[in-house]
Amino acid sequence: MAQLAETYACVPSTERGRGILISGDSKSNSILYCNGRSVIIRYLDRPLEVQVYGEHAYPATVARYSPNGEWIASADVSGTVRIWGTRNEFVLKKEFRVLSGRIDDLQWSPDGQRIVASGDGKGKSLVRAFMWDSGTNVGDFDGHSRRVLSCAFKPTRPFRIVTCGEDFLVNFYEGPPFKFKLSHRDHSNFVNCVRFSPDGSKFISVGSDKKGIIYDAKTGDIIGKLSSEDGHKGSIYAISWSPDSKQVLTASADKSAKIWEISEDNIGKVKKTLTCPGSGGVDDMLVGCLWQNDHIVTVSLGGTIFLYSASDLDKAPLSLSGHMKNVSSLALLKSEPKVILSSSYDGLIVKWLQGTGYYGKLERKVISQIKCLAVVEEEIVSSGFDNKVWRVSLQGDQCGNAECIDIGNQPKDLNLALLSPDLALVTIDTGVILLRGSKVVSTIDLGFTVTASAIAPNGTEAIVGSQDGKLHVYSITGDTLNEEAVLEKHRGAITVIRYSPDVSMFASGDANREAVVWDCASREVKLKNMLYHTARINCIAWSPDNSMVATGSLDTCIIIYEVDKPASSRITIKGAHLGGVYGLVFTDEHSLVSSGEDACIRVWTVTPQ
Amino acid sequence: MANAASGMAVHDDCKLRFLELKAKRTHRFIVFKIEEKQKQVVVEKVGEPTQNYDDFTASLPVDECRYAVYDFDFVTAENCQKSRIFFIAWSPDTSRVRSKMIYASSKDRFKRELDGIQVELQATDPTEMGLDVIKSRAN
Questions:
Q1: According to CATH, where is 2.130.10.10 located in chain A?
Q2: CA A189 – CA A210 distance, rounded (Å)
Q3: Which Pfam families does the entry mention (chain B) (predicted)?
Q4: CA-nearest residue of chain B to A512?
Q5: Alpha-carbon distance A100 to A124, whole Å?
Q6: Of the candidates A34, A148, A565, A583, which lies 20 to 30 Å from A60 by C-alpha distance?
Q7: A531 closest CB neighbour out of B127, B131, B132
């Protein structure tokens, strides 16, 4: 049996030049955000417990809890809104095709009966408000000519809707049925976010012109603004009111979040500035914020979520981070405590600690994309999409100097001989390259298209898999390879080969969804019929005691086989990662860590039957 | 001799053995083979009632097609002992194309000769006729 023990969630997907909208539920103390096709529900007090809703067919953009906390409405780039229940396995209530383009913002009415959605589209269909259960329209929303970035519903009666967008306009609608009342053109750039105060008396709009304007909620007239002294120096992307309607939080591209106090005469004065504790690059621009109960949450462009406490603003924030893109490889550092390293193709390497979660990012001096990663005691060897292989030494928590080796061809796969980490085997299109330290010792053209490889820990044997499914076993003498045997069993291109920790067996997986365990000495098949996947096998991992082998595939499943039992007695984890499982590693006899296309990392507890 | 329209005759022994399995429960499974030279379907192997599903899977060749009938006993949710007769068309991916073609075109006629099959299953590799698949099709 395998059970989910921990999830290291992904972070919201962000885009330079646009803000993101995160929302939450004060009753269950959770925040909602979207990454790729999933909607992530994160509990602020239990960061390792994460729920993921993956039913959208297109990338999801925004999600909101209904006022009674029972339903969540989420929207995606195709203009579809899905309303589903928070309990009971996210059962779908209704799905509506609301706009003809992407939806940027969504809000429930305070009685939970109506939903307003705004975004991109053609002509009239830039904003729509509809009844939540029947989908019937409740108003005419003309007045905008370009993408509508945000919308808000007045939380008290009489109901009003306010929308703002890229045409610099802030429009005010009265209803229901909602009709255009008036429009303001006081912003000189995109208006990014508009929000009503929880008591329903005012609303504020903020924009890329660094201004914030305060309006009266019933009539829509301008009553004040956020003071420009000590104001933001960059576009303001998001705004959130405090629960008592007296303060607002703004997040801006100048890498700071400011808390403003709204005085009686409706002038906002900066009460506190929260600067992002980061290295100061573009990744620290703040793109989203939320004020919920006592928590202040800000999200940066690099995806880091900062949690401040509203009552104690001087306390250093808790920062949560993770991956934003497909996590393509996982490795285990055998230090104490065991640190898991995960890397995604955009060059981000994150450290995780089992039981705690996010442990830090590995600051690399050279940010290059990573395709293959191999880790040994104090060294990380990685290769990207150029012709270079990087060797970086790890000093404690930080990266030391990086040495780069130009190998003349694009590396397809990278392996380190674990016991003599000097020796590395890099496969290129039709051959392999042997590296010792930072020198290329030999480039060998093998004559067939190489797809995967593995090197034994003591550096004497290497196995190379080819496009036609054959496994070629070579012995390494000095700097040359001598072919020892060719093993034929696979019926598709070999995708991954892994030696068992005691080097007595090796497992290979192919693109035709089959995996085979071989005995090293006799080169005979030890376990066959491992055909239970339904798509290409992406990764294989061995348990430290050599008793179990796990395979992860594009079909989102992980299957764990025991080497001594027939393949039919297997443990299957279905739906481990939306989009496919790309990385697998065992941390100890019973814990398996997996990572996938959904940018999440999950830890599973495996108990053999 | 019973006739099959696709040109493949069915040996009388097949029908007799099947009736024995159905009525008298003297066999656990029967494996049928198409003899190309004689152009007929014959009984290749018969299993004792004491044998189980693993013995049956072991008696099917890895690289060749076969037809098989298996009598599967199970206990339902309401605690009743039930049994289902499965017809399995074993057509592994690793077998020759000619073999797959002959078995596929003769299957329909052959099945019609065996009256009383409750569940039909086609398996192209061992995972498709695993015990869990049989159990899920049984109810």
A1: 7-241+260-274
A2: 9
A3: Cofilin_ADF
A4: B93
A5: 10
A6: A583
A7: B127
Which of A490, A530, A532 to probe the B interface (max B CBs under 10 A)?
A532
The number of folded domains in chain B is 1
- Which residue, among A165, A264, A173, has the nearest Cα to A214 in the 3D structure? A264
Q: Which of A568, A570, A609 to mutate to test the interface with B (most CBs of B within 10 A)?
A: A568
Q: Could you read off the pLDDT of A447-500 as tens digits, one per residue?
A: 888 888 898 888 888 999 999 989 999 988 888 888 888 998 898 999 999 999
Interface test with A, best of B56, B127, B132, B134 (most A CBs within 10 A): B127
In tens, the pLDDT along A237-257 reads 999 999 888 889 999 888 888
Bridge partners (DSSP) listed for residue A258: A250, A273
A491 to B93: CB separation less than 8 angstroms, yes or no: yes
Domain ranges in chain A with CATH number 2.40.10.480: 322-411
List the CATH number of the domain containing B72.
3.40.20.10
Q: Is B125 on the interface with A (CB under 8 A)?
A: yes
From chain A, pick out residues whose CB is under 8 angstroms from the CB of B93: 491
Spatial distance between the Cα atoms of A16 and A283, rounded to a whole number of angstroms: 9
Q: What is the ipTM of this complex?
A: 0.78
Smallest CA–CA distance, residue A528 to chain B, in Å, is 10
The string over B83-104, giving b where at least 16 C-beta atoms fall within 10 Å of a residue's C-beta and e elsewhere, is ebbbbbbbbbeebeeebbebbe
pLDDT tier for residue A123 given thresholds of 50, 70 and 90: low
Contact (CB<8Å) A531/B130: no
Yes or no: say if B113 and B10 are a contact pair by the CB < 8 Å rule: yes
Q: How close is the nearest chain A Cα to the Cα of B134, in Å?
A: 13
Is B80 within a domain?
Answer: yes
Model-level pTM greater than 0.95? no
Q: Can you say how many angstroms the Cα of residue A149 is from the centroid of all Cα atoms in its chain?
A: 23
Residue type, B33: K
Under the banding of pLDDT at 50, 70 and 90, the label for residue A593 is: very high
Q: What is the pLDDT of residue A192?
A: 92
CA dihedral A416, A420, A421, A427 (to 10 degrees): -30
Specify the 3-state DSSP secondary structure of A338.
coil
Q: Do A531 and B125 touch (CB under 8 A)?
A: yes
Residue B101 belongs to what domain range?
9-138
* pLDDT at site B8: 78
Q: Does domain A322-411 have CATH number 2.40.10.480?
A: yes
| CB-nearest partner of B131 from A491, A567, A568 | A568
Which one of B126, B131, B132 has the shortest CB-CB distance to A529?
Answer: B126
Rama region for A225: left / alpha / beta (φ>0; ψ in -120 to 50; rest): beta
In a domain, B3, yes or no: no
pLDDT band (50, 70, 90) for residue B4? very low
Q: Which residue of B has its CA nearest to A489?
A: B94
Domain membership flag for residue B1: no
C-beta of residue A530 within 8 angstroms of C-beta of residue A514: yes
**Please, what sign has the CA dihedral across residues A252, A254, A259, A261?**
negative
Say whether B125 and A491 touch across the interface (CB within 8 A): no
B29 within a domain of the structure (yes/no): yes
Write the pLDDT tens digit of every residue in A33-86: 999 899 999 888 887 788 899 889 999 999 999 998 889 999 999 999 999 998
Task: Assess if CATH 2.40.50.180 describes domain A7-241+260-274.
Answer: no
CB proximity B61 to A under 8 Å: no
Residues of A with Cβ-Cβ distance to B92 under 8 angstroms? none
